[in-house]
Amino acid sequence: MNVKTLGQFIIEKQADFPYAKGELSRLLRDIGIAAKIVNREVNKAGLVEILGETGEVNIQGERVKKLDVFANEQFIAALKAGGEVCAIASEENDEIIPIDTEISKAARYVVAMDPLDGSSNIDVNVSVGTIFSVYRRTSLSGPGTLEDFMQRGTEQVAAGYIIYGSSCMLVYTTGKGVNGFTLDPSIGEFCLSHPNMQTPKKGKTYSINEGNYLHFPDGVKKYIKYCQEEDKATDRPLSSRYIGSGVADIHRNLITGGIYIYPTTTKSPNGKLRLLYECNPLAFLIEQAGGKASTGSKRIMEVPIKELHQRTPLFIGSSEMIDMVMDFMTKYPVEKG
Questions:
Q1: Is residue 217 within 8 Å of 33, Cβ to Cβ?
Q2: Does position 19 have pLDDT exceeding 80, yes or no?
Q3: Rounded distance, CA 179 to CA 160, Å?
Q4: Which tens digits make up the pLDDT trace of 142-151?
Q5: Mind listing the pLDDT tens digit for each residue in 108-160?
Q6: Half-sphere exposure of 266 (CA within 13 A, CB side)
Q7: Angle, CA of 167, 173 and 175, to the nearest 5°
Q8: Who wins on pLDDT, 7 or 206?
Q9: How many C-alpha atoms does 96 have within 13 Å on its Cβ side?
Q10: Spatial contact of 272 and 117, defined as CB atoms under 8 Å apart
Q11: What's the CA dihedral at 271, 328, 241, 239 to 10 degrees?
Q12: How many Cβ atoms are within 10 Å of 44's Cβ, its own excluded?
């Protein structure tokens, strides 16, 4: 059997980026190394004092889990050591982390990340993940600046996620399709398992936290009812599948087809998910796989970013399903207060 590792695959694809001189390839390998370390800790989390909360609250007002802190530290350390980035923005940190080392002086990239998405599921052994996004810096030299991150999602040069589940997978894009790699623990390498991933144009699954139904916009409520109706001609009703770990829900829908919705609510009128760390990278990846991602009214990757922890609603998944829910959102527009 001809096994292709992540390292081999990245080297082969370097020709797609002749101007990058290998830095992007090394950066992606650094992310792969940190992912292996985090996966190891996730797998043994129940055996060591790494589960549970630290007692601290992050910038989002969420209680910080111990494994969140560990994952954040590992990715920051790996990216700093690699020398390919001049700044990091993490969901766990209030401000950006500029890198001012000898090795990073010539760095061309910045990385935005959610080091452990779905962390509320850690203690109950449900899949969690890491989301990452890579931009070319806009500043000229020295440590990175906040302005380096104030770029629309269309400017991303790479993005992806790692899912820590029954197997550990790294899925990423550099704007030339989507490829998935599964970690083989026997050799300690990510191996190409899902080449040229394409999501079906429609699926049988919708993913949304229906516990918040009363707080949803009318367009979302009408779409959910549409999904639940019986109609043989359109193969309805659809199945409701909601894990509550965004990476896990979107990973399933990427492979089998489906839609993931995290809309505005009366409690969160601007949406809940972060544009920079979660929505833009997932949108870039899903579009490269033939899907779509929207705020409910416009393409996610075209939304101007004005602040580091900016929030947005998210509709992401199979293209025909996104088109359908957008019709509902147009027909029943969100009322502005």
A1: no
A2: no
A3: 10
A4: 899 999 999 9
A5: 999 999 999 887 777 777 889 999 999 999 998 889 999 999 999 999 999 99
A6: 6
A7: 170
A8: 206
A9: 21
A10: no
A11: 170
A12: 10
Q: Which two tokens stand for residue 239?
A: 């199945």
Whether 205 contacts 253, CB under 8 Å: yes
Mean pLDDT across the chain, nearest whole number? 91
User: Please, which residues bridge with residue 8 across strands?
Assistant: none
> 9-18, 27-36, 81-90, 255-264: which range is least confident on average?
9-18
- Specify the 3-state DSSP secondary structure of 117: strand
Q: Which of 205, 202, 262, 199 is nearest to 238 (CA)?
A: 205
| Mean pLDDT for the stretch of residues 243-252 | 94
* Cβ neighbours for 333, distance < 8 A, ≥ 6 positions apart: 219
From 331, 224, 212, 230, select the one nearest 269 (Cα to Cα).
Answer: 212
Task: Report d(CA 328, CA 330) in Å as an integer.
Answer: 5
Among 17-26, 251-260, 312-321, the least confident range: 17-26
DSSP bridge partners of 135? 110, 156
**From CA 144, how far away is CA 178, in angstroms rounded?**
28
Location of structure tokens 């979660």: 278
Q: For strands 189-194 and 239-240, give the pairing.
A: unpaired
What's phi and psi for 194, nearest 5 deg?
A: -135, 80
Q: Are 330 and 217 in contact (CB under 8 A)?
A: no
First to last CA, the chain: 60
pTM (predicted TM-score): 0.93
Residues in the chain: 337
